């Protein structure tokens, strides 16, 4: 029986954790199998949840979130017969499958769309906890925006410096208001359930927003430009499907592997013009082919554009 | 900082101060009657959940508000029973109520909605909509005053206006009505009220009930106006900041307005700017977060005027030992 | 009313009421209370692994419970256990990270000292304000909990976070600070205890702390003075007991005890300092002290009960759809009935005993 | 019985078979009382006899467990104070029931406001107060805050409250305890005035002189029971005292003349200012020699408590205090300890508030204040509880504390026995100086004799004793010298044989002796 552990922010954050949940649910629906899951309430619980699941013989154990990294390093060694999958950070152990995504690539594409949809030439970014991973989102996004409109302004805000920043919709809403006041008319939220507040405010104020991780277009139909999807659901689904024989190692999933992308569905089809799609698809092809390199913030902790 | 930014921050201040103000006035009625209440947080939380839950199910924010107030009143009734009828320790009762609300809201939310302790997002009539005051659009072009009226004064939700209106109302009730006189008396000297032939128990329950209603509005505002739904622990310590504001205000309504606006302003600034650069010295965001609490300690230490709580506060009224 | 009734019967009846209501809550959310209890019992007591977690939590609660209890003896309501334990964690982290400790036997006393000092220091300001300026200690300790959270947050995010790490947490402590777990301690006696469970040598320190607190409060002059002050301040002044000294002493001991909890959770379990490591144990200490009637032995028993609840609740959350918050509800009910509504139980019992006595007379 | 004189007139108040228990304490037991309209009825009784309880029942503050109340002939449940007020009863409590931060006006209208809004009530009350002030010489500033008023004024407000409620029956519970003789005389004039207007007054007091002076009838309570009701004109203080305590009262104490030795206590220019900034001791100088008792007489509240406080170390003051020639540091932090070290033993005025920790067991109380003594320690860290218990048992036997069980909490001893525990603790130290406040307050006559004997014995053994008491009898019978305090000053000194109650009374009122 496989197991899934959600990070703080909770299973129904409409975003990262929910993507993991959807993957597990898909596996359940298709195979009729069952799985164990737990939502963390605190940092201190990480170890207990991991160990308890491993003790109980669950296999594989999937955990969603970089914050499990240091705990997993320790626990993995104690349970050599259990396979672990961790998402968003690298852990090197013989029984760990570590998956990272090229979020900068996906963010680049939605950045392009934001720049094309913006009338004011000012777009916004609301990040969750201020960590390099989120800077990576922001940097990819800014590069995409500037690629379309070098004169555009990208307003960037982080919600906080602790995990609480993933679950603070009020603050997300206030940051969105501030950005709108500064002229932003498209805002990209990469902030877990904090982003729900951003999208809500954007919709209330009649501007466009961009969702993250899961496809969030349906949250406010006709008002969410697109979503930068990160196929965490796929990673969970595949891990569950592979079961205990899950291949371990370190994997980076980008546009080429369809690990990231942008969402197009009935909720945003009126917002996305044909030329937008054409431009974005072209960029995507160039990135996949290697012609276009989007800078990854985490390689040097710096971003070439502001 | 330009004018628009200032307006933005003040606008944000008003929104963030509203739940603090409502909770602070709630605490004011209760504590003026001699019932200390560190359970403001719990009452708000209970109300936030039930208002969001009922609004989500019925699609009516008004039913939601009613449910929120009812939930808060139930908590108030527990506190009242513990501290008035059973002469228990008011602080412990408050602590218990905070725990109770934190636990029950998530447990019930999970049972009802299976969304990890949240309610579904509220849409349309299930939320309080911003109210555009008359002439707001027309006056907008007027320099200075126009934007102030349009951005800052107009365009808030109903509970915001209600909260601000409650300040003069509370003042008037406390100082100009029979009920207010008795309420203040029972917090200072319950035996004086008792020997004057007025029921101490009834007066205190009335005060606790008012506290419940106001906390209920505060919680409903959080869940159905400021946000669109309930999430676990969404009050995030606002009940304690309201308590801090109450001490800051020395248990007076107008000062409560000032204190909550100040704390709301601090929150607005902390929200807007992660680290504030004051000409070389960078103030980390954590300082802004902690400022209300630090200020309260400074006030309590009596360095900025002494805050003397109602004399009979915190003590059960015991006639016969 | 006889003393045993006050000490045993009332908490017991209160507890039964709290658990009865909790069972109703479980029923109301469509689960089976009997199955839930069974799962909690097996999850918290059914194996050495389960015991390991139960005792681990109990250790935390013994420290915070003792902290509240000692302050209660001086009639001070220390709600600041949470913040004091947080700062205790900081003390432990600084000590464990600052030196290359060769062996835990050296690191442990140093870390314990650091934890106690930091915890006591965090209690010192509210204590001093209470003693000299009459600032209500309940409010100041609540405020200090929030301030502690901000301080720790700042330090973990901006100062103590290792370069390149995304978690707001310190680096892992060096292996020389690794405390022996109950597994290690019991192995020489041929007892096989789970390796995975976090209960460690700190549990023994907690028991020693109970004995020490008992000695201090009931066998020393300081304890005598603390109790006298707690019962009557005018009498204490008459006897030449200095209130400032007593308030400071009681709160420093209380803060040190709360801080000592960090030896268990920070040094013994996580081996690094993370945000929110205290997890509400400071507040649970209030319930533990109330149930334990502020006596170390009572605190010990109540801490075991809460350790059981906590671990049992975690198991419930793992294996059923009952959210972990159910335990928070049970805690709340226990606090409510044993702390705030005890007169509800006492009044009828008192009447009963009076009637019994009259009947016999 | 008093009613006999009234003929067919309907009694203003009739109580029948009133009983009231507070937990295990039976405060009132089957009490009946009849008071005729237009009379002043006195109630006397020892502390704890149940006087206040009975009156509080009449006023609806407590609910009787059993019994019947009739007001003006009509049965009346008096379920709460509101009902009592409606029945025309007003009460001035022993402990005032005023809202301190409120103004006089607000206190007066509280509970009898004329509607939902305050403004009309306040206006009406202002007018009414003015009229009452003129009618009864009861002047107070209607806008003054209660907390700013002195006790005499507060009492006036209480009386005004009752009159504003148009009380026909006025109950006053120990109104003169806090008043100077002049203030008390003024109060009695007011009461006479009220009586002449047909109002009925019940007056509780400990002072038999007042009973004799103003009441028409008097009832005596003892241990929760009503033992007698008499026409004042047909009784005497001696008879009342005997009824109060249940046996013949010895008014005289046999003692040897004092043989004073060296000066033990020398106080010069002692000053104490309280937290409100009021100077309570204004330069007191006195001395006590070994083997003599100096009695301090005075109306309560004239600085005696502060004198005891500074000497005992619970208050700070300025000036010089020497014990056997050595000066005491009046600003010391652990003052109580340094006083004990200097040889001062202190029996405080309020044993339940200061002298004892009510929840502590007898043995814990027996070392209270002396818990640092080497005799109490087992080693450097721990106390020697077994030795303390043994010592306590022995002392309890010697001081006839009943029951002589060291493991009972102080709370469960009766008042007299609690006082014996305190005395045993302080006297057994063989102190150079014993300062003692109200040694026999609330103590029955048997215990009073015992305590007095102990004090004399201590004096004869060569200790210096400073005795503060509001009971003039006690002062007169125990003291070798008497100093009278008024308004924070010593008004003068007398030898007991060369003075009397009248002379001391004038000094206590500040009308004789050293002027400012
Ligand atoms: N509220 C109360 N709760 C419990 N016991 C009480 C209460 N009030 C009075 N008692 C007890 O009832 C008894 C009678 O008290 P009461 O105050 O009526 O006496 P009193 O005659 O007025 O004495 P004093 O002269 O000291 O005023 C005492 O033993 C007292 O301790
Ligand atoms: N609160 C209490 N708890 C337990 N027992 C009590 C309490 N109050 C009084 N008692 C018991 O009731 C008895 C009578 O107490 P009370 O104070 O009425 O004595 P008393 O008749 O006034 O004697 P004394 O003249 O010595 O004051 C005491 O001996 C005591 O044992
Ligand atoms: Mg009385
Ligand atoms: Mg007595």
Automatic annotation (TrEMBL), chain B:
Membrane topology: Multi-pass membrane protein
Predominant localisation class: membrane
Domain of life of the organism encoding this protein: Bacteria
Keyword Lyase found: no
Record flagged with keyword Secreted: no
GO cellular component, one term: plasma membrane
TM helices/strands, residue ranges: 12-29, 49-79, 91-113, 158-175, 205-224, 256-274, 290-309
Compartment(s) of residence: Cell membrane
Keywords, comma-separated and alphabetical: Cell membrane, Membrane, Transmembrane, Transmembrane helix
InterPro entries (UniProt xref): ABC_transp_permease
One GO MF term: transmembrane transporter activity
Protein's recorded name: ABC transporter permease
Organism of origin: Rhodovulum strictum
UniProtKB/TrEMBL annotation, chain C:
UniProt keyword annotations, A-Z: Cell membrane, Membrane, Transmembrane, Transmembrane helix
Membrane protein topology class: Multi-pass membrane protein
Transmembrane feature ranges: 7-30, 50-72, 107-125, 137-157, 196-217, 246-267, 273-292, 299-320, 326-345
Main location: membrane
UniProt xrefs under InterPro entries: ABC_transp_permease
Entry's Gene Ontology cellular component terms: plasma membrane
Listed GO MF terms: transmembrane transporter activity
Compartments where found: Cell membrane
Keyword Repressor: no
PANTHER family named in the record: ABC TRANSPORTER, PERMEASE PROTEIN (PTHR47089), GUANOSINE ABC TRANSPORTER PERMEASE PROTEIN NUPP (PTHR47089:SF1)
The protein, known as: ABC transporter permease
TrEMBL record, chain D:
Localisation: Cell membrane
Keywords of this entry: ATP-binding, Cell membrane, Membrane, Nucleotide-binding, Repeat, Sugar transport, Translocase, Transport
Pfam families in UniProt: ABC_tran
Gene3D superfamilies membership: P-loop containing nucleotide triphosphate hydrolases
Domain ABC transporter: 13-248, 265-512
GO CC terms: plasma membrane
Similarity comment text for this entry: Belongs to the ABC transporter superfamily.
Name of the protein in its database record: ATP-binding cassette domain-containing protein
Species of provenance: Rhodovulum strictum
């Amino acid at each position: 029986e496989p197991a899934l552990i959600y990070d703080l922010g909770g299973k129904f954050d409409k975003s990262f954790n929910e993507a993991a949940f959807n993957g597990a649910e898909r596996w359940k629906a298709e195979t009729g199998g069952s799985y164990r899951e737990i939502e963390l309430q605190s940092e201190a619980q990480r170890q207990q949840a991991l160990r308890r699941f491993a003790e109980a013989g669950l296999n594989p154990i999937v955990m969603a979130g970089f914050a499990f990294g240091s705990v997993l390093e320790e626990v993995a060694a104690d349970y050599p017969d259990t396979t672990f999958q961790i998402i968003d950070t690298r852990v090197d152990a013989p029984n760990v499958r570590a998956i990272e995504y090229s979020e900068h690539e996906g963010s680049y594409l939605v950045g392009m769309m934001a720049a094309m949809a913006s009338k004011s030439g000012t777009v916004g970014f609301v990040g969750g906890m201020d960590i390099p991973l989120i800077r990576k989102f922001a940097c990819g996004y800014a590069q995409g925006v500037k690629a379309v409109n070098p004169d555009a302004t990208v307003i960037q805000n982080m919600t906080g410096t602790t995990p609480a920043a993933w679950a603070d919709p009020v603050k997300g809403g206030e940051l969105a208001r501030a950005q709108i006041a500064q002229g932003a008319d498209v805002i990209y939220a990469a902030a877990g359930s904090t982003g729900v507040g951003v999208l809500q405010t954007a919709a209330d104020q009649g501007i466009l927003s961009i969702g993250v991780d899961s496809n969030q277009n349906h949250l406010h139909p006709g008002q969410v430009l697109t979503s930068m999807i990160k196929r965490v659901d796929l990673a969970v689904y595949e891990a569950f499907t592979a079961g205990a024989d899950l291949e371990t190692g370190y994997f980076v999933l980008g546009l080429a592997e369809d690990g990231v992308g942008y969402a197009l569905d009935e909720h945003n089809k009126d917002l996305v013009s044909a030329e937008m799609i054409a431009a974005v698809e072209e960029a995507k092809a160039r990135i996949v082919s290697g012609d276009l390199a989007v800078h990854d913030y985490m390689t040097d902790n710096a971003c070439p554009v502001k | 900082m330009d004018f628009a930014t200032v307006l933005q921050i003040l606008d944000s201040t008003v929104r963030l101060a509203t739940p603090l103000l409502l909770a602070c006035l709630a605490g004011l009625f209760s504590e003026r009657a001699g019932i200390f209440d560190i359970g403001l947080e719990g009452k708000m939380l209970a109300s936030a959940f039930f208002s969001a839950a009922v609004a989500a199910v019925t699609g009516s924010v008004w039913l939601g508000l009613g449910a929120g107030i009812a939930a808060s009143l139930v908590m108030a009734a527990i506190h009242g029973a513990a501290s008035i009828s059973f002469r228990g320790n008011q602080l412990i009762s408050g602590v218990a109520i905070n725990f109770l609300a934190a636990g029950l809201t998530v447990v019930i939310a999970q049972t009802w909605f299976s969304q990890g302790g949240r309610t579904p997002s509220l849409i349309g009539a299930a939320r309080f909509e911003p109210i555009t005051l008359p002439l707001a659009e027309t006056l907008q072009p007027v320099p200075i005053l126009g934007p102030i009226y349009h951005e800052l004064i107009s365009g808030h939700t109903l509970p915001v206006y209600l909260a601000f209106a409650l300040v003069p109302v509370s003042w008037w009730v406390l100082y100009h009505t029979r009920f207010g006189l008795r309420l203040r008396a029972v917090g200072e000297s319950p035996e004086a009220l008792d020997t004057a032939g007025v029921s101490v128990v009834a007066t205190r329950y009335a005060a606790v009930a008012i506290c419940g209603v106001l906390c209920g509005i505060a919680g409903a505002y959080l869940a159905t106006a400021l946000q669109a739904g309930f999430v676990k622990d969404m009050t995030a310590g606002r009940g304690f900041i309201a308590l801090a504001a109450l001490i800051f205000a020395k248990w007076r309504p107008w000062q409560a307005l000032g204190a909550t606006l100040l704390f709301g302003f601090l929150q607005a600034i902390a929200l807007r700017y992660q680290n504030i650069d004051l000409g070389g010295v960078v103030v980390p965001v954590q300082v802004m977060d902690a400022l209300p609490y630090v200020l309260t300690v400074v006030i309590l230490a009596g360095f900025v005027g002494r805050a003397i709580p109602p004399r009979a506060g915190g003590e059960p009224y015991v006639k016969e030992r | 009313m006889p003393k045993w009734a006050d000490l045993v019967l009332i908490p017991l009846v209160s507890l039964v009421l709290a658990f009865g209501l909790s069972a109703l809550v479980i029923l109301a959310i469509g689960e089976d209370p009997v199955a839930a209890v069974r799962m909690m019992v097996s999850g918290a007591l059914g194996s050495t692994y389960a015991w390991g977690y139960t005792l681990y939590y109990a250790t935390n609660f013994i420290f915070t419970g003792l902290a509240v209890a000692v302050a209660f003896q001086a009639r001070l309501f220390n709600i600041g256990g949470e913040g004091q334990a947080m700062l205790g964690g900081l003390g432990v982290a600084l000590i464990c990270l600052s030196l290359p400790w060769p062996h835990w036997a050296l690191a442990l006393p140093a870390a314990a000292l650091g934890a106690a000092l930091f915890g006591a220091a965090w209690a010192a300001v509210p204590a001093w304000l209470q003693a000299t300026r009459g600032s209500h200690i309940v409010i100041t300790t609540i405020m200090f909990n929030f301030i502690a959270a901000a301080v720790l947050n700042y330090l973990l995010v901006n100062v103590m976070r290792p370069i390149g790490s995304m978690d707001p947490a310190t680096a892992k402590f060096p292996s020389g600070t690794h405390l022996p777990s109950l597994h290690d301690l019991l192995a020489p006696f041929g007892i096989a205890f789970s390796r995975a469970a976090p209960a460690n040598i700190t549990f023994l320190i907690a028991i020693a702390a109970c004995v020490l607190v008992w000695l201090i409060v009931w066998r020393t002059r300081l304890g005598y003075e603390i109790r006298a002050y707690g019962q009557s301040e005018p009498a204490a002044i008459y006897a030449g007991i200095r209130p400032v000294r007593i308030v400071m002493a009681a709160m420093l001991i209380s803060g040190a005890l709360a801080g000592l909890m960090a030896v268990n959770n920070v040094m013994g379990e996580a081996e690094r300092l993370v945000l929110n490591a205290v997890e509400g144990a400071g507040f649970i200490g209030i319930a533990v002290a109330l149930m334990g009637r502020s006596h170390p032995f009572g605190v010990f028993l109540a801490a075991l009960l809460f350790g059981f609840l906590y671990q049992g609740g975690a198991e419930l959350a793992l294996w059923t759809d009952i959210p972990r918050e159910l335990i928070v509800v049970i805690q709340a009910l226990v606090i409510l009935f044993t702390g705030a509504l005890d007169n509800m139980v006492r009044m009828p019992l008192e009447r009963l005993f009076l009637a019994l006595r009259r009947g016999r007379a | 019985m008093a009613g006999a004189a009234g003929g067919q007139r309907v009694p203003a108040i009739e109580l029948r078979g009133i009983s009231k228990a507070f937990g295990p304490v039976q405060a009132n037991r089957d009490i009946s009382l009849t008071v005729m309209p237009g009379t002043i009825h006195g109630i006397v009784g020892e502390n704890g006899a149940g006087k206040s309880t009975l009156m509080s029942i009449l006023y609806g503050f407590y609910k009787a467990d059993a019994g019947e109340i009739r007001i003006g002939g009509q049965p009346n449940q008096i379920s709460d104070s509101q009902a009592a007020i409606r029945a025309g009863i007003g009460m001035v409590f022993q402990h005032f029931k005023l809202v301190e931060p409120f103004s006089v006006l607000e206190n007066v209208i509280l509970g009898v406001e004329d509607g939902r809004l305050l403004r009309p009530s306040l206006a009406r009350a202002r007018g009414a107060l003015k009229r009452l002030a003129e009618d009864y010489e009861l002047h107070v500033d209607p806008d003054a805050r209660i907390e700013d008023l002195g006790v005499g004024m507060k009492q006036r407000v209480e009386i005004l409250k009752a009159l504003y409620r148009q009380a026909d029956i006025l109950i006053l519970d120990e109104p003169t305890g806090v008043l100077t003789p002049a203030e008390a005389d003024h109060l009695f004039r007011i009461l006479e005035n009220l009586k002449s207007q047909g109002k009925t007054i019940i007056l509780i007091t400990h002072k038999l002189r007042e009973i004799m002076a103003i009441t028409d009838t008097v009832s005596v309570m003892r241990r929760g029971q009503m033992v007698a009701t008499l026409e004042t004109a047909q009784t005497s203080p001696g008879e009342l005292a005997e009824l109060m305590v249940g046996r013949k009262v010895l008014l005289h104490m046999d003692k040897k003349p004092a043989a004073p030795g060296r000066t033990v206590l020398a106080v010069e220019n002692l000053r104490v200012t309280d937290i409100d900034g009021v100077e309570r001791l204004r330069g007191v100088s006195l001395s006590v020699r070994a083997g003599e008792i100096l009695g301090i007489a005075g109306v309560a509240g004239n600085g005696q408590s502060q004198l005891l406080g500074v000497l005992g170390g619970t208050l700070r003051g300025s000036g010089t205090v020497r014990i056997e020639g050595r000066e005491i540091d009046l600003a010391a932090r652990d003052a109580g300890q340094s006083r004990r070290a200097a040889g001062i033993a202190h029996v405080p005025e309020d044993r339940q508030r200061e002298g004892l920790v009510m929840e502590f067991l007898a043995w814990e109380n027996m070392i209270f204040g002396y818990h640092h003594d080497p005799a109490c320690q087992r080693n450097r860290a721990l106390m020697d509880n077994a030795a303390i218990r043994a010592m306590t048992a022995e002392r309890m036997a010697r001081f006839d504390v009943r029951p002589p069980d060291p493991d009972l909490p102080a709370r469960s001893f009766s008042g007299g026995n609690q006082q014996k525990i305190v005395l045993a603790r302080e006297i057994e130290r063989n102190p150079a100086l014993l300062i003692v406040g109200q040694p026999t307050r609330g103590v029955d006559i048997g215990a009073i004799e015992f305590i007095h004997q102990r004090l004399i014995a201590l004096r004869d053994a060569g200790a210096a004793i400073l005795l503060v008491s509001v009971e003039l009898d006690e002062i007169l019978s125990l003291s070798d010298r008497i100093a009278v305090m008024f308004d924070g000053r010593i008004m003068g000194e007398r030898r007991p044989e060369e003075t009397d109650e009248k002379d001391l009374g004038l000094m206590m009122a500040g009308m004789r002796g050293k002027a400012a």
